[in-house]
Structures are given as C-alpha cells and as structure tokens.
Amino acid sequence: MSQDYTRIVTLHLAAQMPLLPVVTQCVETAARVFGLGREESLKLSLATEEIFSYLSGKVCQGENIDIRCVNGIYCSRVEFRFPVSVLDMGSLNIAASVDYENEDDLAEMGLALASRSVDYLNITAERKNHICLTIIKDKQYPPVAEEYFAPLDIQGAITVETPDPEGVKRYVSRLAQGPPDPRRPQFFQYPGQVVDMAASGECQVLTAVDVKGECAGGVLFHFWRSRIIEVFGPHVFAQEREAEIAGMLLDACIAKSARTKAIGLVNLTGMPLSLQSQFELLGLIENYTMDGVKIDRPSFFRLLHEDPGCRIFADRKLKDYLQREYKRLFLAREIREVHDNGEMKAGASIFATEMRRERELAILSPLWPGADLDANVKRHLRFLRGETVNRILFALDLGVSWHASIMTVLMANQFRPALIIPFAGQADLLVFQHDRTEP
Amino acid sequence: MIEPNLELLVPAYVREFEPYIPSKPDPELQKLYGCDRLYRLNNNENPLGPPPGAQEVIRRFPPPRGAIYPSGDSYYLRREIAACHDIDPDQILVGNGANEVIFDVIKAFCGKGDNIITADKTFAVYEWVAVFSGIEARIIPLREERFDDRGMLKSIDDATKVIFLCNPNNPTGAYWSRDTLKNFLDEVEGKQIVVVDEAYFEFVEAEDYPDGISMLKDYPNLIVFRTFSKMYGIAGLRVGYLAGDLKVVDMIRRTCVVYSVNGIAQEAALACLRDDTGHIRRTRELVRESKAFLSAEMAAMGVPVIVGEGNYMILKLPLSDTLAYRKLMHEGIMIRPMTGFRYPNHIRVTMAQMEAMEAFVAALKKILS
After folding, report:
1. Could you tell me which of A172, A77, A197, A187 has the C-alpha nearest to residue A133?
2. What architecture does CATH give domain B52-273?
3. CB neighbours (10 Å) of residue A101?
4. pLDDT tens digits for range A172-200
5. Model confidence over A7-46: pLDDT tens digits?
6. Is B120's Cβ below 8 Å from some Cβ in A?
7. Are A302 and A264 a contacting pair, CB within 8 Å?
8. Are B342 and A279 in contact (CB < 8 Å)?
9. Regarding the domain delimited by B6-49+278-368, which CATH topology (the fold level of the hierarchy) does it fall under?
10. I want to staple A272 with a disulfide (CB 3.0 to 4.6 A). Which of A1, A246, B103, B178 is the partner?
11. Are residues A297 and A328 in the same domain?
C-alpha cells in the first residue's frame, strides 16, 4: 500500500523514561483522532507504555527510536523502530520473562503484558540490527444485526462487481446469518469493519449480484505475505447455482490478482467443493471448536505464475517429508541438507510471535539464531499455554539456511510439519503445528 | 554503511510493481524438473527457426565486427522495411524487440495523470510499462475473446493518450477486420494515439484482416508494431519496429536510446525480409497442420479450445493451469499457463512440428488421466 502521510503521525525521540508521557499521550490522542473509542485508545496507550518502558529499560536505552501511529481506518497501528545490539536481542522475545523450568512466574512484564491489551503484536527484522515492533488495536464495531434475510431467489444472469459499502454490508450480513464456521475470522461478524478494511486497502471484496441486485455471494482477499494473497471464500448464498457463482467470483479474484506482485493464492479457511479441483491441497491444520472438538482444516493453494523452482535448506530428518511433499505438489526444488558440525553458537535467539488473539492463534517464526533454541521454544510454549492460545504454529522459511537448524528442536518439542506454503517467504514456508495432546 | 532509504527514493508505483521473472534457461529447468529433453511450446517461437538467408548471416557474422558499433538507428533495415511498405524510412523506428518500442511510445505520449487503454486478456507488456511508469492503465474486458471497441471508446477521457490493440490478439487469436479497425479509428477522430500491435501479422490468412501499415496515410494517429521474433524466427536477436506518421515518429524518436539493436540482429532481419525460399509458406503450413491435429485431439479428449489466427491456441483444462505447467514440465513439455493473462485454468500452446505436438498430447493425456 502507498504511504499516505495524512494517515501517519511520527515521533522521533530517545528511548528514555522521562519521555514516556509524550509517547503515551501522542499514541492515545492519535488513536482517538483516527476513530478508536476511548477504551480502545486507552488500551493501545497502555500497551505503548509497556513497550516504551521495556525498550527504554532493557532493550535500547537512550537510543533513537521512531514511533509511527498509523490510521488503518478499521484499526490504529503503532510501529516502534529501533536499533538493538546483539547482546540485548533475547529480551525481544515475547516470552523473555518466562523461565522455562520454573512454573512459578508467568510473564507479567514487557511485551507479554503489552500483547494482552491489543489485537495484534509482532516483531520483524527490517535491516541489520534494526527491529520493527508493531501493535494493532481494532476499532469496536457493532456486530451484524439480527435481521432476518428471506431465502434467496436468484434470478437471471449473475455479474461480479466491486461493491459499494452497502453491498459489502449485505454480503457480510448474509454470511454471518449462515451456519457458523469456526474457521471464519472474527471480522466477518462486523460488517462495518469489513467496509473499513476495504476502504483502507487492507483487503478487496467482490460480490456476485443477480439481475435484481440481490447479493448471491462474495469473496474477500488480501495480501498475507509479500507475494501471497489469502482468499476467504468464495461464499455462495444460492446453493442451486453454487458452482457457477463460486467460479465467477474466483475468476474475478484471480483477474484482480494475476498482474500484481502476488505469486500465489492461499485459502486457509475453507472453500466450496466445486472449486477445490482448481487448487492444490497443501495439508491440514488442526482447529478446535469452542467446546474443544478437533476439526482438521484443509489449506489450499494455487500459483498464479510458472513455478520458477528454487533451492531450499532442510535438516536431514525432514528431507524425506519434504521430498514426498514436493513430489506430490509437483514443485521443483533443490533440497540442500544442513548439518550441525559442532560450530559455535552464541547469544540468545529471537522468535517473532504473531498473536491473533481473536483466533486463539499464535504464529512463531525465527528472527535471529542463538545458542538457546530449545530453551526458547519451551519458554514460548509455556507462555502461550498460559495465554490460552489454542493453536500454535511455527513457520520456518526454507530459503534461510539457519532456519533448518530449528527443525529438530521443534520436533523434539511436539511440533509436527503440517504444510508447505510455496513462496510465502524467501522461498517456501514450512509450517509446523504444535500437538495439543502432548503435555 | 548507510543503506539508501528506498521508501523515499523509489516512487510507490515502482516499489509496488512486481518484476517479471522470466523462465530459467532450459538446462536449469531440465535439471529442476528432471527431464532429459524439453519441447518449448510456451513462447510462440517459430520451430523452423529463421529463414535460410538469416541463418547464413548468423553463421557468417565476422567476429571482428563484434568490436564495431552497429548502425545507431538501423539505417539499412529501416530503408528495407520502408521499401516493403512504400513509406518513408523515417516513418520507421526499430527497437530491441517490439517491447522496446512500447516503452518509447508510452514515454513519448504519457505524463503524470495520463492514462492508456488496453484489454484485460491480452499481451501484458502495454499494461506493465504503463503501471511501472506511473501511468494509469484502463483495462477493458474482451468481448467474445476480442477487443471491445465500444467499451474502449467509452472509457476514453481527456487524459487518455494511447490505446493499445493487439491484432490478432495474443492469446485468443481473435482479430478486428479492416472495417472494424477503420470505424474505430474514425470514432477516435485522431484525438488519441492508436497502437495496433501486429506481432502475428504474417500468420494471418483471413482475407478481411487489415494491414495496419497501409492505413497510416489515412490515419496519422495510428502506430503499427511488427516483430521479427515470431514468423521470422529471430526472437533471440531481439528486433521489432514501429511504423507511423512522420511527425508522430519524430516525436517518439526523441525518447529512444540509439544503438539498442545490435549489428547481427539488423543484418539477420534484413535477410528475413529478403527471403525468397518460402519461409512464410512453410511456417503457415506447419501451423495449419498442427492446429488441425491439436483441435481434433482436444475434441476427442473433450478439452475445450479457443483458436483463431496466430501460431498458438488456448486449451481450457479441468485443473489449475499453473499445476498443469508443472506436471507437463516433468514430462518435458513447456507451455504457457494463462492465469497471468487472466484466463485461469487455461494454457496456451505454441504450434510446432508434429513430433512436439504428439508428445504434448501424450503428456496431456497422462496428466489428465
């Protein structure tokens, strides 16, 4: 998305505690101006207070820090950019304050605490020793009205269009009135949020309408990684014409995506049976209903271009699995084995933790190598269990050689390889899922 | 080391554009996909190669000439092309493939706030060049696999500078007749530049297909693209050209970088124009035979096709075209998946010798079984 400086407020200051009120006031005021309610603005400000205090005290004391408050229309985002020395890296783990052996302490400080006040928290490495820490607080929206929609009587030719805000609301409201689906993200409960997400450029929505203007279905899609578009749906409300309408929506979605920087489409939340032959099954992720019943959730993928092939790195123990999967998916990959030859490993590793509290989901990924991989994995598992995160995924970039050294550590900690998402990183992403049945 | 701030230095329309990643060289692909031979049915190349005279030029190019700059504006080649069409050599601009003259036209006519018009399912480079130059590309859906003249006319506004047509269209093979093109140009009334890309001109046998260059004298806002990459089989040397009105071409020339067409390419292109061995006839026969064969095979397999002019046809598959590409690559067949052309689940196949077409059909049967 383009930089729109009318939607950004920037602070450039030193990471020093006396400046804390400047930061929290700025974030809170910006959030209010950007449309967040009083309570959400306060929560964002509280998270900011925790983070700034933590950075000033433990991570980059006295260093220059850039703080950007961004109006995401449906949310407010605060980005902290700062340098960090190798010695302080470990403190950037969300579970940094958790002792993996001692059951008494649970994280009551720093990033862990901040994560509880916001809807999203993540850390990314932008360039050498420069980190970006992002928190997001969503606006509060009224849930979908309990209005009764008469059964659809779809007539005549169907057209696919980019809907106006009222069209988006009709699509989301009708979807929310259908059978519940635990795989569907929360935002589908809030028509106003989806309207704002589309307005902000965060996602695109297409709807299928009949000759009378009735909404017969819709699809929502957005960039999930820099080269991958995630598709929700297509959702069809006229079962007798499901294949036709779903096909039209998917074709339109592909037409919008085909000449973008996206290299593939991924669907992690289910799609009509009639379209599944146009996609490839990547694998299954376990999901749980509110009452704890396990559901295997298939993930689908399709490339938008020729597979250019690539080189990937793997531990020997995973090589058979990868060979089998790549053969099944007809993907051309040169697999290079990575061995531990006893070379020195030093310092603390960092894992980025993408927290999606509304989906009870955390996606971990390695940011920095270190000598404490096993302990760090254990710390994160303990922390996430304490936060009642139901689904813990660990994503390794197979294009980054040192990520391969984490594979055996993950498997020793009850993670299992669940699926490969082509080109979702520098090369493919190998997603491990933590087995909930293990202690 | 201070890294440049690319967010500030690079315009958003460049940052957000995904560079086109061309296929790896054949030996690399063969290694990746584990196949010991590769039939290239993806780029609409001429399997017969260049005409014999051009082959001789390539074989006999004196190595010391490698040290000498070529003619900076393809002097002799422009004269020969002009003579073929009975126009002034200065009405011709030769480029490093027709792709280069697309750049030249957009650079010459479009500035900030302007737009170009083209179709959704056509050669992508018009749209790409516009987008990464910060120019809006208005994309009009095809109607019945051909350019929608009414739709394009309706989307013209004061900021529209260039309209790009591909005739016959790549990948559908549909074309505008002389009457359709003439009516369109009449309605444009010279207010915009109309580019007609005739990359596949020499393949077309339909009687009502127009020769754009012959219409230049009546429509000075018309520009015609031709290439030596398709029928003449010298895609590897990169030669294409545009023809237009003298004053229009004079403007475009201001945006060109001279010396972009190398010496061996200029001489080989000259030899292509002078061919008297029936290269075009032989190629057309091959294309006819292959199209008839493939059409019959696809009908027998129940695979729908879109076929028109040009040395290619489209097949609609019951699976993802990009998956079909990978499966076919494992069988040693390279085709073009059509998702990038906004035809998901379709592939484009170049017409080639029967051995290649039979290998393709066998591989397709295998992957669909």
Report:
1. A77
2. 3-Layer(aba) Sandwich (3.40)
3. 8
4. 999 988 888 877 888 999 999 999 999 99
5. 899 999 999 999 999 999 999 999 999 999 999 999 999 9
6. yes
7. yes
8. no
9. Aspartate Aminotransferase, domain 1 (3.90.1150)
10. A246
11. no
